[in-house]
Amino acid sequence: MAKDEEVLVVPARLLDELGSFSGFQHNVDRYLPAILDRNNQSFLPRSMVEDDPSFKQLIPYIILECSDANQTQLFQYTRGKGQGEKRLHAKKSIGIGGHISIEDTTGDDWYNTGMQRELEEEVKIECGGQQRVVGLIYDDSTEVGRVHLGVVHIMQLFSCKVSSAEEDLQFAGFQTIDRIRTEIGRFETWSQLCIQHLYS
User: Fold this and answer.
1) Dihedral sign computed on CA atoms, order 114, 11, 46, 51
2) Other C-beta atoms within 10 Å of 26: how many?
3) Element (H, E) at 123
4) pLDDT for 26-83, tens place per residue?
5) Of 12, 104, 107, nearest to 60 (Cα)?
6) How far apart are alpha carbons 98 and 105 in whole angstroms?
7) Coil/strand/helix, residue 8
């Protein structure tokens, strides 16, 4: 029997105290310090929290962006069947990331350790870049959205030298924002929210 992964969560009441929201939240400074405070975090079995909205699984959601003089492009892919969240299979995405696991507690910064691990597992980045947190996502309109809280990062890369490092990131590559907008209905909800709020 496979080991039940323990994932990083925050209690739903924390969001209620900070100010409940649904959709995309730009006010990072209001929420992020409390969300990343270890006093508000715990690790719980993933099987227990997958259907329990009283806890929110914390997910770094990293958008890889590169620009030239003419246009901005985003890294996008289609989720294959081997991706962990079965409810998102076959959906297109512009976000790289996943759960922070108890195995990520070896360093001082659990969240960033987990985020870097997820990046290294999913993509091969062959250039430098700078990243910043630009928002939060909470989508209470779907089963998967009600139990996850996304921290949205944009990683501005110095070039478009990125490839998939995981076979379940299918049809991966950079695409212009204009082209992505024309296919927005094929993207998972979190990606749609990011496209609408960050690239409108």
Assistant:
1) negative
2) 12
3) strand 123-125
4) 999 999 999 999 999 999 999 999 999 999 999 999 999 998 778 899 999 998 865 4
5) 104
6) 15
7) strand
